[in-house]
Design brief:
The complex is a heterodimer.
Chain A lengths: L3 E10 L2 E11 L4 E5 L6 H9 L6 E6 L2 E2 L10 E4 L11 H10 L5 H14 L15 H13 L5 E5 L7 H18 L2 E6 L2 H7 L2 E6 L2 E6 L1 H6 L4 H6 L4 E8 L2 E3 L5 E2 L10 E6 L5 E3 L9 E13 L3 E8 L2 E8 L11 E7 L4 E3 L2
Parallel strand pairs in A: 3-8, 3-9, 6-7, 7-8
Antiparallel strand pairs in A: 1-2, 1-4, 4-5, 9-10, 11-12, 11-14, 12-13, 14-20, 15-19, 16-17, 16-19, 17-18
Helix pairs in contact in A: 2-3, 2-4, 3-4
Chain B lengths: L13 H32 L17 H8 L1 H35 L3 H15 L2 H12 L4 H9 L12 H25 L3 H9 L4 H29 L3 H7 L6 H10 L4 H29 L1
Helix pairs in contact in B: 1-12, 2-3, 3-7, 3-9, 4-7, 5-10, 7-9, 7-10, 8-9, 9-12, 11-12
The chains are: A alpha+beta, B mainly alpha.
């Protein structure tokens, strides 16, 4: 096991800058997600850490030693690919044993460790099958077993769950986390799925256009997004843009929003509010003294089973409010509704 | 999701069989007229004592086949021909596989098309012209020797013309495109991420080649080898022109029977013995061939 340090790494393909000056610490034994839309450079970064390509400038350390000029086969990393990349001509056993076979491990040792790792991923008894005889979830377990059997220093996962359907994905998230905890390997996961990043990881890094926008625990990033992009890419967010007048955000429609953050006096600012933090309140309801209140017009109500999703607008700002089914009020589209939320849920973000 | 598919259930019935017969009929008729009938006629000839034309005295006999088993000469030639086929197929693999690999995995876009054209060009030129061009290259004081003498002064002579290697060179040139094309097709179906995966597991480039690429490309290699082996063991043009006195193979002897000696029955018998030999080889190697593809 080892920690991974990426410092001031840049990488460009021709004239296209894929990564610019990225520095991240991946702590020993942690599960770190790199989250970003396609083209954000997250896969490029993963492949640099793996050693499939080399950075233009900057350093990469694995377990304290510089590896940025070492090819992938010398780095002792385990990698799971998006399409699993199982060798179709080999049985499950041979696939899993591959990493030990190239390390000239003796036969008994290989057979014992393949048995152990197949037990760990709950595929005991599948050794003779070929990859095409397995389901998607089973293939994924084989790919994981193959990547961890030689006890790599780092485990790299490239969109590990994106090829599975939703029900299987939830089960595999739990499994993946269990296995990662059990073997305690430093794990770096690349995903564009914010839910995957939030549920799986200890730490999340949000990437956009080759830059690291923010990093922190899933809770920190969700509750305190630093940018409007991070706020709307991780979950949904209502964004309010306005002028700062005497410490509050004055919107075009006249409403004033208070925040616990210090707003830049005299300029414009953007604040984000999570849809589930906003409540629809009755006209006569008594509100906390620091609550933000606003009247918005209801456009539509989307029924989503356990919750209701209200679509509204205030001036030309589109708004969303989530309410649990049990607390939903009887409302009709077109009417004005009163919204309220705490000042502490109004987060100042970079536009 | 999984809706019952009521629309595209294929109709099976007499009309299906009839339309299939109409569509396949012409092709099979053509094959019968152009391949099966002449082959049957040749098979009949191989049991005759002389060419069945007016003024000749002929009867049915096994003597043409017996000649093969009685005379050491023919068996030596058969062995030489099989060896030639195997050697040419091997050289085509050695030269063609790396070329196919680079075309399939390294080069992209317009360059690939241009290089493909160069691979195909031997197909477009006339075989005789191609072979006679080789005589100019290989003959004593020819293009190759002059080039080598220019490169390394006092190189001396190679004496390649009218030798076994000259025949191999000519045949490899003629049949190389088959190996490149079949290998290219099977290499292209190999997902690049398999190579990445093998490397991430710690495999060196050589191990990746041995354990991943070669096994997965085996169908193409086997197809190419078969496509080359079969025509090469019956070839006569390259051995005759480039091999001279050294270029005596079963193919040239068969051709002699038809064109020079006018002993069609013997030529036909030798042809069928060659065919039988090929079929036996394929039957013996069938398990390996099937596993490979």
């Amino acid at each position: 096991m080892a920690s991974v340090t990426v410092s001031h790494v840049t990488k460009s393909f021709g004239n296209f800058p894929a990564l610019s000056d990225i520095s991240i610490d991946f702590s020993d034994g942690g599960l770190y997600s790199l989250l970003g839309p396609s083209g954000s450079g997250k896969t490029t970064l993963l492949r640099l850490i793996a050693g499939f390509s080399f950075p233009n400038t900057g350093e990469i350390h694995i377990g304290g030693s510089a590896v940025e000029r070492l090819p992938v086969e010398k780095r002792n990393i385990g990698m799971m690919f998006q399409n699993y990349a199982l060798f179709p001509n080999m049985s499950v056993y041979d696939n899993v044993a591959f990493g030990l076979m190239v390390r000239d491990t003796n036969k008994e040792e290989i057979s014992k460790r393949v048995g152990d790792v197949l037990e760990l991923v709950r595929l005991t008894g599948y050794d003779r099958r070929k990859p095409h005889e397995l389901s998607g979830g089973q293939r994924q377990r084989v790919a994981l077993a193959r990547a961890i059997i030689f006890r790599p220093k780092v485990l790299l996962l490239d969109e590990p769950l994106s090829a599975l359907d939703k029900a299987l994905r939830l089960g595999m998230q739990v499994e993946l986390k269990r296995i990662q905890r059990e073997i305690g390997v430093t794990t770096i996961l690349v995903t564009h799925d914010q839910e995957e990043a939030l549920t799986l990881s200890d730490k999340v890094g949000v990437l956009k256009d080759g830059k690291l926008l923010q990093e922190g625990t899933p809770r920190e990033i969700y509750e305190r997004p630093a940018t409007a992009f991070a706020a709307s890419f991780l979950g949904d967010a209502n964004l309010f843009k306005g002028r700062v007048v005497s410490g509050a955000l004055e919107l075009d429609g006249g409403s004033c929003l208070r925040s616990l953050d210090v707003l830049p006096e005299g300029g414009t600012a953007t604040c984000a509010v999570r849809p589930e933090k906003i409540s629809i309140v009755a006209d006569d309801e008594v509100l906390a003294s620091d609550a933000n209140v606003m009247e918005a017009r209801l456009d539509d109500i989307v029924f989503a089973g356990n919750s209701l999703n209200y679509l509204l607008h205030y001036g030309d700002i589109p708004l969303q409010v989530f309410a649990q089914n049990h607390e939903a009020a009887e409302l009709v589209p077109g009417q004005l509704v009163k919204l309220a939320w705490y000042a502490r849920d109004t987060i100042l973000v970079e536009a | 999701m999984a809706l019952p598919d009521t629309v595209s259930v294929p109709r099976r019935g007499p009309s299906d069989a009839r339309s299939a017969a109409w569509l396949m009929g012409p092709a099979y008729l053509w094959l019968i007229i152009t391949v099966l009938l002449p082959l049957a006629a040749m098979f009949y000839f191989s049991f005759l004592s002389d060419v069945p034309i007016a003024g000749r005295n002929w009867y049915t006999t096994f003597s043409n086949y017996e000649a093969f088993f009685q005379q050491e000469f023919y068996r030596t030639l058969m062995w030489r021909s099989l060896r030639l086929g195997a050697e040419v197929a091997l050289w085509c693999f050695v030269i063609g596989f790396p070329c196919a690999y680079v075309l399939a995995k390294t080069i992209k876009g317009r360059w690939r098309e241009a290089l493909f054209l160069l691979v195909i060009i031997p197909f477009w030129s006339n075989a005789l012209i191609r072979i006679f061009s080789w005589t100019m290259v290989l003959r004593g004081n020819g293009i190759l020797e002059r080039f080598l003498a220019w490169l390394i002064p006092g190189f001396g002579s190679l004496d390649l013309m009218f030798t076994y290697p000259a025949v191999v060179i000519g045949l490899v040139h003629s049949y190389l495109p088959y190996m490149i094309l079949t290998c290219y097709i099977s290499l292209q179906t190999i997902d690049d991420s398999l190579v990445d995966a093998a490397r991430s597991l710690g495999a060196s480039r050589l191990t990746v080649l041995r354990k991943v690429i070669l096994p997965l490309a085996m169908p193409g290699i086997v197809a190419g080898a078969v496509l080359i082996f079969v025509p090469v063991i019956g070839s006569f043009m390259e051995p005759r022109i480039l091999g001279g006195r050294e270029g005596t193979f079963l193919g040239t002897v068969i051709e002699d029977q038809f064109t020079a000696v006018f002993n069609w029955p013997l030529g036909a018998a030798l042809s069928f013995l060659l065919l039988a030999c090929v079929l036996i080889i394929f039957a013996v190697f069938q398990p390996i061939l099937r596993r490979a593809s």
